[in-house]
Amino acid sequence: MTHPHYMKINALYAEYLRQTEKADSLFEQKLNPDWPALAREVSGNRLQGRTLELLADQNRGGADDSVDKRLQSMKGKQVVCIVTGQQLGLFLSPLYIVYKTLSAIKLAESLNRRYGDICFLPVFWLEGEDHDYEEVSSLSILDKSGELSRFSLKEESARQGLSMNKRVFPGEIKELIYALKESLTPTEFSKPLFEFLTAVYRPGTSWLAAFRQHLAALFRGRGLLFFNAGDAWIKEQSRDFFREVINRNGELLEAFLSGSEELKKSGCKAQVNVQPERAYLFFNAENGRRLALNRRGETFLNREEGVSYSRGELLRLLEEEPGRFSSTVLTRPLWQSYLLPTLSYVAGPGEIAYWAQLRPAFNFLGLTMPHVQPRHSVTLLEPRVAKLLQRFHIEPATMHADMRAFIHRHLKEKELPELSAYFEEMHRIKHEKEKELLEIIGKIDPTLKGPAQKSFYRAMESLDQLHNRLVRRVREKNTLLTDQLTHVHRAIIPAGPQERVLSAVYFQNKYGTHWLERLFTQLPDRFDRHRYVEI
Q1: Residue 156 gets which letter from DSSP?
Q2: Residue 354 CB contacts under 8 Å (≥ 6 apart), including other chains
Q3: On the CB side of 242, how many CA atoms lie within 13 Å of its CA?
Q4: Angle at the Cα of 414 (from 422 to 401), degrees rounded to 5?
Q5: Where is 12: in which H helix or E strand?
Q6: Nearest C-alpha neighbor of 87 from the set 202, 167, 164
Q7: Rounded to an integer, what is the distance from CA 239 to the centroid of its chain?
Q8: Counts for the chain of helices (H) and strands (E), in that order
Q9: How many Cα atoms sit within 13 Å of 447 on the Cβ side?
């Protein structure tokens, strides 16, 4: 079993992990490729990897010596990239951002050990041009009482539709950090963590810069590189790519549709529904808002904003202001390979499903489709949770997603009806024997029937008191057990799988970087199955 029962995964992802013939037919590279041969193909493709030097420039001169060493290792070698990326979730939320990054680093380190004549660079692609504020503006933690707490930054109406790399933190970020600190359990790591957060997430600071600094600090010493595709120089070098998207838009759409049809023929559902009217291109309007463009013949338009451009006008704007153009979910993987010599992309289950639609598009543009590496999937087990799992003999992978069903399964409520049945039987026998004995007493000495009845009453009263004490004790035990089971469930499935809900800052506050070091030690170089790691 690669994943627990409560973690739903799409069918294609499951097929890919099993390396079935169906999955292999959809991807250019197998799950376990010939790495040196693929590296030669990628590095030898003149159509891609055009901004490798700009990647180096974006990472030189920082405070992390391991990054400079990584850049030095490029000299005299074939250079290829292990890339991952994600939206810029507030305070590294959710946790799988960390797992994707760790997966890229571990794969790069493993390949660098095996193939010394090739340089494998772990690269985090900063999704700064995404504009879905709702997706990134909140974080969740388990507070002092063990309850799930969510913190959010409200969006300023004047900034709606802006890319994240055009946003800065409002003054409210200070209040959010204070509220977060008050909600978390104080530990020896709290003070340095919140000093760091206060320094990085300041009012007026770029959202992208803060995210990068936080992730870089967490992975300090690991040689992680960052790539900001929104950089002006990168956009200058991207004109040819976006020109292709504009000039050959209809053909590119056909390639996307072809990939979707291949997926459907294999019996799998398309993760991204390809829409014939879409141009699969974003364009920043005069007011800065990021607009999805549709295409109607030779015209590119956005009905919501009431703007339209002829193909010629759009090409002229590309020459003059390339920074206004950006990719969509389907064109970003293509742009990524155009810019970087991407050997492998570390992806989550949903991403792997839509990458299966992209092979015809890679072929259409003459790009080498990268290998797709499933990210690590992890549930962190805190000490108390690990002990409770062991005490109650609970296998976390089989836990029910619904908390009430999970608790009911393990609660010993059957003791109450068993007790009641026992004492009801005692009362029934008491009435029968009392009647028989009173008849005997009446024959011997009728004056003793009254005292005998009182003795029976006191005996049954004592028995009833014992029954009530036992019932209270069972309920007390069940209350404690319910609390413990609730704690276990919230820690492992807090409104969904832990890795999709909790923020990294929750574990940073409680354990510093120990939990991350534990992951680097416990996890294999590449994903094989969902793992539970005690910290």
Answers
A1: P
A2: 270, 271, 272, 329, 330
A3: 26
A4: 175
A5: helix 11-18
A6: 164
A7: 33
A8: 23, 14
A9: 0
Q: 65-72 and 52-59 helices cross at what angle (nearest 10)?
A: 150
Tokens 């534990």 belong to: 518
Q: Which two tokens stand for residue 256?
A: 């996307």
Q: pLDDT, tens digit, for every residue of 430-461? A: 777 778 877 887 788 788 777 877 777 777 77
With contact defined as beta carbons under 8 Å apart, do 359 and 27 qualify?
yes
For the chain, how big is the Rg over CA atoms in Å?
A: 31
| Pick from 429, 407, 409, 416: nearest CA to 482 | 407
Helices marked H in 44-171 — which ranges?
Answer: 52-59, 65-72, 96-114, 133-136
Q: Which residue has the higher pLDDT, 164 or 433?
A: 164
User: Whose structure tokens read 């600071």?
Assistant: 205
Among residues 92, 299, 290, 110, which one has the least CA distance to residue 201? Answer: 92
Residues comprising the chain, all counted: 535
Q: Which residues are CB-neighbours of 112 under 8 A, at least 6 positions away?
A: 73, 118, 119, 120
- H helices of 117-206, in order, are 133-136, 172-183, 190-200
Range scoring the smallest mean pLDDT among 104-118, 346-360, 394-408: 394-408
Q: CA-to-CA distance for 308 and 293, rounded, in angstroms?
A: 9
DSSP structure class, residue 154? P
Stretch 86-101: mean pLDDT, rounded?
97
Neighbours of 342 (CB within 10 A): 24
Q: Give the β-pairing of 78-86 and 531-534.
A: unpaired
Amino acid at site 115:
Y
The span from the CA of 396 to the CA of 330, in Å, is: 36
Decide: helix, strand or coil at residue 167.
coil
Domain boundaries, the chain: 11-238+329-379+510-534, 400-492
Output the pTM of the full model: 0.88
Picking from 98, 79, 78, 93, the residue whose alpha carbon sits closest to that of residue 137 is: 93
Residue 532 sits at φ, ψ, to 5 deg, of -110, 120
**Residue found by looking up tokens 């503006």 in the block:** 137
**Cis before 94? omega within 30:** yes
Name the residue type at position 330.
L
Alpha helices in 356-411 (DSSP H): 359-365, 383-391, 403-410
Q: What is the pLDDT of residues 196-254, one digit of tens each?
A: 999 999 999 999 999 999 999 999 999 999 999 999 999 999 999 999 999 999 999 99
Long-range contacts of 387-393 (CB under 8 A, 24+ apart): 388/484, 388/485, 388/487, 388/488, 389/488, 392/484, 392/485, 392/488
Nearest to 80 by CA among 109, 122, 124: 122
């072929």: which residue's tokens? 363
Collect contacts of 481-486 with beta carbons under 8 A, ≥24 apart.
Answer: 481/410, 481/411, 481/412, 482/407, 482/411, 484/388, 484/392, 485/388, 485/392, 485/406, 485/407, 485/410, 485/411, 486/146, 486/403, 486/407
- Which helix (H) or strand (E) segment holds residue 236: the answer is helix 232-236
